[in-house]
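Worked example 3 (structure in, sequence out).
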């Protein structure tokens, strides 16, 4: 029961009113007494936190915490693509020529996800990875490669929960959730890093808008429940090094390019 209650603070509910109340509470100092129980319930690693547990004044502060500089080593190999977040590999595979793909047994149109046929065309026969973040995970987002930010845009007005329940019952969750898409250019090809926000709340906070970036640089963070989707062009020659259901850490290799 405790885990269910705490989870509602960060994944929110089906009601915009309740979601806003939970958001307000989690960001207020009234939630301070729940910081330590929250950390205990989700077995957060205090040793890797930037600050001591008692220094976090709200659940939201704890949820969006930074880590110590050595907590997440970044793979330095230029061919390596690293995970942009801590999370679980929900699904991964080839993007079919008809511009649709499956995420947890649901079919989604790539052009809906990206907002246009032109944007989707580049990813035909490319590769995708879906990463789901639970309340126990570190919720800051980092660049998985070194390169240039070509474009960034936001889409979506209606949100559904980005957890198993939402994917099962939501109305085309990945094509309707509020999301921020970063189109990245590297020497190996282009990829899109798609941040999908929480229910009824724009929970994507960007902290870095520099035109160039290095692998591991912070991009932003999720304030509440979240999912990340990576799309790779076919010419990226992406070779996966993880499997579905595997838990990964930010900075860990999830694939590599042969170019």
């Amino acid at each position: 029961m405790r885990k269910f209650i705490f989870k509602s603070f960060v994944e929110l509910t089906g009601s915009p009113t309740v979601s806003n109340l939970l958001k307000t509470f989690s960001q207020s100092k009234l939630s301070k007494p729940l910081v330590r129980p929250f950390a205990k319930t989700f077995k957060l690693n205090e040793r890797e936190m930037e600050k001591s547990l008692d220094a976090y004044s709200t659940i939201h502060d704890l949820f969006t915490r930074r880590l110590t500089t050595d907590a997440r080593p970044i793979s330095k190999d230029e061919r390596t693509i690293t995970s942009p977040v801590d999370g679980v590999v929900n699904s991964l595979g080839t993007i079919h020529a008809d511009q649709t793909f499956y995420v947890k047994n649901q079919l989604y149109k790539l052009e809906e996800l990206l907002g246009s046929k032109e944007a989707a065309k580049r990813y035909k026969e490319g590769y995708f990875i879906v990463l789901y973040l639970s309340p126990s995970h570190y919720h800051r987002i980092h660049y998985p490669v070194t390169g240039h930010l070509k474009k960034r845009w936001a889409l979506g007005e209606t949100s559904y929960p980005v957890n198993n329940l939402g994917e099962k019952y939501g109305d085309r969750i990945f094509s309707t959730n509020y999301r921020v898409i970063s189109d990245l250019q590297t020497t190996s090809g282009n990829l899109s890093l798609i941040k999908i926000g929480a229910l009824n709340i724009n929970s994507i906070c960007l902290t870095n808008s520099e035109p160039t970036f290095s692998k591991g640089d912070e991009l932003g963070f999720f304030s509440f429940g979240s999912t990340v989707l990576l799309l790779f062009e076919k010419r990226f020659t992406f070779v996966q090094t993880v499997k579905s259901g595997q838990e990964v850490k930010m900075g860990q290799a999830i694939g590599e390019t042969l170019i």
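Notes: The longest helix spans residues 16-26. Residues 2-63 form one domain.
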